[in-house]
What does this fold into?
Amino acid sequence: MIRSLSAIYLLVVLFISYLAFANFIPEPEPKIVEPEPEEWVMDPYLAMYLDDFARNFEEGMIEEEIPGAAVVIVKEGRVVFQQGFGVKERGKPDKVDEHTVFRLGSLSKGFTSVLAGVLAEEGVVNWDQPVSRYLNEFRLNDPEQTGRIQVRHLLSHTVGLPRHAYTNLIEDGLTLDQIIPRFEVVPLAAREGAQHSYQNAAFSVIESVLEAKTNTSFDTLLHDKLFKPLEMNHSSTDYYSMINSDNRATPHIFHSRARGRVPVPINRRYYNAVSSGGINASASDMGKWLLLLTGHYPDIISEETLADIYEPLATIRNQRFSRHWDGVRQTHYGMGWRVLYNHGQRIIFHGGYVNGFRSEIAFSPEDGTGIFIVINTHSSYPLTVIPDLFNHFRTTPQVVISE
It folds into this structure.
């Protein structure tokens, strides 16, 4: 009997222990449900403007007899418009789209200054260091001035050389290694920093500087530091990538009143000086580029370094680049970029022309508004379009609606 009571007692104790243990089993943590990101809805007034923009742009192309074009517009950290217009080649049906590749010409200079900025943040180069410390082959006609030339002088066209010194040698296909030693025999036109004198060959010295400091080709640096992280998948820096692209525009030049604009072959000019004019890209790529330029990729380059790049270093008093902007009488040049003030709004911009392609880019870092236009012929039409866009956004507040 005692054994039976002991057994019953043991079972009761075990049962109570089980219940106590069960009560202490932690409940599973509640699953945290992340809220869905707010869906961005375009302001209807912005949508109406962009519809009007597309219609007016296409009408202007027809009036100017421009075969094909591509446009991208960014605003407040977003690509709000990207579209192709017209045809890749006159007389053929293939339409330009946002991924069609064009040559950028001197818009390449902006890529070069930003690449130099990325490498400056990495400690590879310094804006204020003498170029001769990086590159022994770089010599000017005056040895003392040679020692004073800094990286910022190369990128701002203020070395002191005459305008377009040895641009002809680039267009003749000489390499930078062949061109750079020849600067020593060119009479100087000004002291460093005193005068803006636009260059292609002297600007391209930065390629050799960056290659010497990194033991890496300039093309590879552009790809690894900019194209790849930005996913600019249609961008390249060489002749063969351009001609082998399945979606590329054909350049055109004006022939005569009877024939108008006629297609011409892609040539090799400036692929020997990529930093000055050798980059190929699409509008979809350039939308990403505009977002970087307006400060939305701080993991690639900081806003502080971009501010250094955009800081005016020289003043240009002729109206060649400001004549389409109401009230602007002079422009400035930073490092690889032109700068103007449109009714107080700072606009950073640049244009390019090479091999029958014309390109323009402009943006306001403060407002986050930017536009890129490229056409496959030579025409000043993009220059007339861009100021209207900035004047519209300057005078018409836009509202971003989310739900």
Remarks:
- The mean pLDDT is 90.
